[in-house]
Design brief:
Strand content: 15-25%
CATH topology of the largest domain: TIM Barrel
CATH class of the largest domain: Alpha Beta
Oligomer: single chain
Distance between the termini: 32 Å
Shape: globular
């Protein structure tokens, strides 16, 4: 097998700001894996918070000698020593290649029903109130919004949600990206209870499950983790502390890690959200293939990018529509 990785730059429709920072161009890594006349496509989405960058992924993948020439030898090829985003990019390319070899889409290889996909949320990044409300109007009648919080005063954040609710009556989720202290989280979430929030994602910095439990016991809005739940082994410590967990292929090391995390979450009684980073249709489509297994989806990367060179998963008023072609079913866009 021939493995090649290259940088993929994705200009965004709007600057995308969360509590930790802002980006105008998303940088990911395109992975190409060639074998027996076929090519598998993958995407690595490094997260600096966890010590990975595009440069580190490129160095790890382009300098890697694969331990097997058999694409089906997943346990051998996906060495746990490979950093998660880099391993995820290779994992996606392998699953795409295997599906093409067998002439079956990924959902079929996993025995999943392609029509049982959920509706995804559309994420609104942090901005001033006028810009935020303009973005909400731009989204139109999309049935689920996820609004980023975690920056500015408590009053400003509460008033932003109140203003959104004046013009948007459908499902609303919020995500603080570790931006609050436990006391701030309780204060803000209690104030937001009248606004019918489906859940709050990662209100406080990761690493203190007891603080999450204290928040959950004092507010009525369900609590879902993201930064606290990277891989399956993180979940037992969260038992009894939160209502659900977010699963991201960029953190789990790809499809295999995501499946392990989903099944572990179910065994512990958690609800499951399948999320994404700001990434192309390659990684978003791979996640979408797993979505029949989860309760909630936040797979909106293709909504946020202005120039995606790939196409795959489609949306029908937010419902994920899986491609029926072999593997991931992702295609390179043909220039007009």
């Amino acid at each position: 097998m021939e493995l090649r990785a290259s940088r993929l730059e994705l200009p965004l429709v709007h600057p995308f700001r969360i509590a930790r920072g802002e980006e105008r161009i998303a940088d990911t890594v395109l992975v190409r894996l060639r074998h027996d006349g076929l090519e598998g496509l993958g995407e690595a989405t490094p997260i600096e918070r966890y010590g990975e960058t595009c440069s580190s992924v490129l160095a790890e993948l382009n300098g890697r000698r694969l331990r097997s020439d058999d694409p089906f030898a997943l346990e051998t090829l996906l060495d746990p020593a490979i950093a998660p985003a880099a391993r995820g990019g290779l994992d996606l390319a392998l699953h795409d290649l295997i599906g093409k070899m067998l002439n079956r889409p990924l959902y079929a290889l996993l025995g999943l029903d392609p029509d049982a996909t959920p509706v995804t949320s559309f994420t609104i990044g942090i901005a001033d109130r006028a810009t935020t409300l303009a973005k909400v109007r731009e989204v139109g009648d999309h049935p689920i919004l996820k609004v980023k919080l975690g920056a500015g005063s408590a009053r400003e954040q509460i008033e932003t949600i109140a203003a959104i609710r004046e013009q948007y009556a459908k499902t609303l989720r919020i995500d603080a990206n570790e931006g609050w202290t436990p006391d701030q989280a309780i204060e803000i979430l209690r104030a937001l209870e009248p606004y019918d929030i489906e859940f709050c994602e990662q209100p406080i910095p990761a690493g203190t499950p007891a603080a999450l439990r204290a928040i959950r016991e004092r507010v009525r809005i369900p609590i879902v983790t993201d930064e606290d739940s990277c891989v399956a082994s993180d979940l037992p410590a969260l038992y009894g502390c939160v209502d659900g967990v977010n699963v991201k292929l960029a953190k789990t090391g790809g499809v295999r890690g995501a499946l392990a995390m989903i099944h572990t979450a179910r065994a512990l009684g958690f609800k499951v959200m399948l999320g994404c980073m700001v990434e192309s249709a390659i990684a978003a489509t791979a996640a979408a293939h797993l979505s029949p297994l989860v309760d909630w989806a936040d797979i909106d990367g293709p909504f946020l990018t202005a120039e995606d060179p790939f196409e795959g998963v489609r949306y029908a008023r937010g419902k994920l529509i899986l491609p029926r072609e072999p593997g991931l079913g992702v295609r390179e866009r043909v220039a007009a």
